[in-house]
Structure formats: structure tokens, C-alpha cells
Amino acid sequence: MSDRFDLEQQIMNCWNVVDDIKMVQAMNDLRALSEDEMANALLGLQTLYQMKFEVLFNTFENLIREQKL
Question: Which residue intervals of the chain are DSSP H helices?
Fold first, then answer.
């Protein structure tokens, strides 16, 4: 059972995408990533954040349904 504080935390966690993209860029600046490494890093981020946003939206829908928002 989630509450609005869980929703808030999930929203904040999704903002990490910006920091994670910056990390990939910083790594590429430190050591040139191959095309495969860059593709794998970006695909991993895409997959991870798709999951995070799905969990976030599910929490949001449940809170609306339960009239907790």
C-alpha cells in the first residue's frame, strides 16, 4: 500500500535520469566509449527509467483510485 510520500519519493527518483545521463557523458569524456558501450549504457538507462516511470504511474493511479490524492 503506497501513500503520497512514496509517490513523492518515486518522482524524485525519476529525476535521477538527468544525473545518470551526465554520468554516461562524463565516462565518455574520461575514456572514449565504443559505440557498443554507449549503446549498451543508453539502452540500460532507457530500460531502467521505463520501469521506474511505470512504477511511478502505477502508484499515482492507485492513489487516485483510493482517493488518497
Answer: 4-14, 16-30, 35-65
Buried b (16+ CB within 10 A) or exposed e, 6-34: ebeebeeeeeeeeeeeeebeeeeeeeebe
CA dist 2 → 9, 50, 53 (Å): 11, 20, 15
d(CA 60, CA 9): 12
**pLDDT tens, position by position, 26-58:** 999 999 999 999 999 999 999 999 999 999 999
Which pTM value belongs to this model? Answer: 0.87
Q: Grid coordinates standing for 17? A: 535520469
Closest to 9 (Cα-Cα) out of 41, 68, 52 = 52
